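To whoever is covering the structure queue this week,

Two jobs came back overnight. Logging them here so there's a record in the thread.

Job A:
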Amino acid sequence: MNKGKIAVQRLSDTVAHELERRILDGALKPGDRLQPERELAVDLGVSRPSLREAIQKLVSKGLLHSRQGGGTYVTDRLDAGFVDPWGDMLQKHPNLQADLLEFRGMLESEAAALAAKRATDADIERIGDAYARVEALFAEGPSARVFEEQVKADFAFHQTIAEAAHNVMFGHLTASLFRVTHEHIDLNLRHLRRQDEDWLRLRDQHAAIWEAVRKRDSTAARAAVRRHIAFVEESMEVRAQHEARESRARLLRRLEKSDT
């Protein structure tokens, strides 16, 4: 009897370990819902009681959470410790954006270089699909109708490359950075929509990154990302200058009205 209990305990630990691995690898992402219990038990080749015990272990760790009548979901605990304080700091100290962008450049350029070296055929297919979507949406031009989809596709393209680096830290840190800087990237893309030439440059940069990774040229992939981040940094500075001018103009206009 005791031996049976020990065996079940060990099996649930093995199942919990496998689910943790899927979370670390990015196969299960924050917000993802686990398969229905019956399907997941078959997929893992275990009994439903062992699966339930494994899920409970991960719930107690904070990696999963259950919704009454609504299944079990992956939490963002691995990323929240990074995202929450930095998101708040960025709101209070916008000058940190430059530092975060510099860090993003180092992170993404190395991730792209590693992806060019390590990507499997399945990875290349995923990146190709992500690129095809971002290109199709950006080809519609700076359109307000599809803008939100363009932002999501842009993020997904870069995230897919980070995951193809086959280093769990790249995948999770890149996802965390996107969540921290989402609002600023959104504003920057809205600014770029005003200039057709800038929009075309952005499309060309995505194409260069994809081609370098597809050809497994790590040096070119690293350089392509560096050029892209440099362009983003430049456009952010232009946007900041534009906003400062608009703010000053609005202030002068209010002062003029108050004098009349």
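Job B:
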Amino acid sequence: MAGCIITIDAMGTQTAIASQILNAKADYVLALKANHPTLYGQVKNWFEQQLSQGFKGIIHSYDKRLEKGHHRTEKRQIWCVPISQQQTLHNQDNWVGLKWVVMVVRVPHLCNQTTREVQFYLTSLNCDARNLGQVIRLHWGVENGLHWTLDVTFYEDACGVRTGHAPQNLALLRRIALNALNLEQSLKGSNRQKSNGWDSFSKTGSGT
């Protein structure tokens, strides 16, 4: 793990996890979303203000990309700002190794429809917007593929559980189950077919 860059979606954006990564001599790129409402709101408002002012007088790294393919275009912009340029962040000292805060703006255009997505990240890396953009792009590819697999196999998007720690616990259990399905070789077919096979097996008993 030493020397690696660990990218984690919002569910894993926790101070304890950041500490574990740093203790293993690795670096982190953690997605920041509304499950940390105070910190998220603070970062979001700060970036919006600086964006309106063109980041005048602010030390930052910036990169812009345009990708085309399969009748789709996507414009991506990324801003990396050292925490020294911002006001003290909420519980900043609890985020071990935190050096930069990142904003990514994605504007995909497909079939005459244009959307705009804004995402924020916390990182222990010494930031270069171009390199960090590539790291985040790779994470999106893995995460999107995993999300699609979880939805097809376990109908994750249809799950109505929203209270307490239940969503996080179920998400973790789904990933454990998905890993088990990937390791299962005695049943042939897709993971969805394998899970149906396990379900039928559990209903009929172990055969003993």
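Note for Job B: Confidence is low (pLDDT under 50) at residues 141-148, 200-208.

Please reply-all if you pick these up so we don't duplicate work.
Q.
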